[in-house]
Amino acid sequence: MRYFFRNLCNKFNMPTNTMKSSVPEHLKDSLTALAQTDLTAGIQRKFDNDNARVEKHSFQFRELYFDLSKTHISDPLVERYLEIAESQKIEQAREDFLSGDLINNTEQRSVLHTLLRDTENQGITMQQPVVLDQAQDARAQFTEQYKEIEQSLARRETPIKDIIHVGIGGSSLGTQLLYEALQVIGERRRIHFIGNIDAHQLVSVLDQCDVSSTLVIGVSKTFTTAETLQNLDSIANWFKSNGVDKPLDNFYGVTANPTQANQYGLASSNVVSFPVWVGGRYSVWSSVSLSAVLLLGKEKFDEFLEGAAEMDRHFYTAPLAKNVCFKAAMLDHYYANHMGVGAKAIFAYDYRFRSLVDYLQQLETESNGKDKQRDGHPVDQKTSMVVWGGVGTDVQHSVFQMLHQGTSIIPAEFILVKKPDHGLQEHHNELLANGIAQTAALLSGQTLETVKELHGDEGLSDEAMKAKVFSGDRPSMTIMLDKLSPSALGGLLAFYEHRVFFGGVLTNINSFDQMGVELGKRLAKKVRPLIDRGEANDTGFDASTEGLLKKLTEK
Length: 555
Ligand code: F6P
Description:
Mean pLDDT is about 95; it is low at about 1-20. The chain has helices at about 1-10, 25-40, 45-50, 55, 75-85, 90-100, 130-155, 175-180, 200-210, 225-240, 260-265, 290-295, 300-315, 325-340, 355-370, 400-405, 425-445, 450-455, 460-465, 485-505, 520-535, 545-555, and strands at about 60, 65, 160-165, 190-195, 215-220, 250-255, 270-275, 345-350, 385-390, 410-420, 475-485. By secondary structure, the protein is α/β, with parallel strands linked by helices. The protein has a six-stranded mixed beta sheet with strand order 1-2-11-10-8-9, with helices on both faces. Strands 4-3-5-6-7 form a five-stranded parallel beta sheet, sandwiched between helices. Helix 2 packs antiparallel against helix 5 (about 75-85). About 50% of the residues lie in helices and about 10% in strands. Bound molecules: 6-O-phosphono-beta-D-fructofuranose (F6P). The site of 6-O-phosphono-beta-D-fructofuranose has 14 residues, from loops.
């Protein structure tokens, strides 16, 4: 009977009384009670009751300003989470991370990407000297190889106009964001990012390029990812069919598995490596960003690293009560676990951040979308929320309806950049006005009385009047950058990384593996030969999958 009960609990991810709970029960209960009060009282009342609310819950960190005051944050909430932090030994977990412990326990790896940006070895980490040496070597090696590549490109008869960066997930999203965010207007050279196996994208990119002026950079931590290898093969064939005998001379590989890149056919001189302790979705700080660094310059990249290192110092040294990464993680946890929130949204009011949501989606959901605790027991709380969003003001004209008047609470994050890098100030003022207005509208809502005041003489029906009522009290957080500088970008991304880290510790999961992506990949290998051979009978798959295969393969 007990065995049956446990199996049932495991299946539905329910706690049994022998399971280790990551948050003490009395604190869970107390947070649930606080959430009830918070939901009833709302956020506006918190402003009414406290003149110093903004001051208390905002935070200026170098070029970044964080305003958390429009969320449900409060002193009692912070107090409870500090208790959880103590019971969860969160400070110890942070030290374990920075000391190089094998915190990625399922893969028996340390997580040390922060070392790549500790360029001045300021000692925020307490690594073993050997690891510090490795990190220094990795940085020095990248600098050297980058210079060599730059020089060899300068010697080319035809200058490079197009770089095709081939890589997927962590081997592309960060580099694309870095490039788009810091790209200089007027730069004529371009980077095309190819991740997807869908050749509609590849074919359209190749159509814009010429073999004489195209460089290919294949990025893959493992150098075994099917999409990346097939895209590289097809590009090599394109070179060949355009008269280039040795296409791989125009290819560089960036990887933590140089042997595999050599086996693929790349000469060692064309392989740039990075250490295995840099996780894919944490690799923007490494040579994975080669393509962007070639166009943006190493100086900007170093500033980007430095900005992140500053945030690392805050993450590491600030007490949790004043730690912006912890407070944001705490709010995520509170919303997901005590307010029934399933999704949060990120809206960047800056076109240069058009890839930010994709990047953060991978960072958060691949890290914390887990259902097992570190010791293998089922998780007894909600882990990663759905992360979605877009770019303002576009999204205002599509999804904001639901944000304001939908039946689910969706905490929203607004990212604003104070100074633009163009001269059309009027556009920028309008953009910022919209972003700020949205945060105000989500908070205040609009009562029926206000609707009547504003529209009373327009002859509107009762229903139309009621439809214009907004409940308000919808939480939002605003992050404002002085400028989209390399260091501000570095600081911003490091903030999100550390927030995800704290989120993982709060729920007692391993944020650094990604087992959930493996099954689909394995089954694709079984499905592929069936499609190639046009077979759809007795496949061993479920009836729906077999039905799909039949549809696909019927003549
Ligand atoms: O399938 C998930 C994943 O392993 C990601 O974690 C990673 O960023 C991506 O695939 C690409 O992997 P690789 O860099 O080894 O090609």
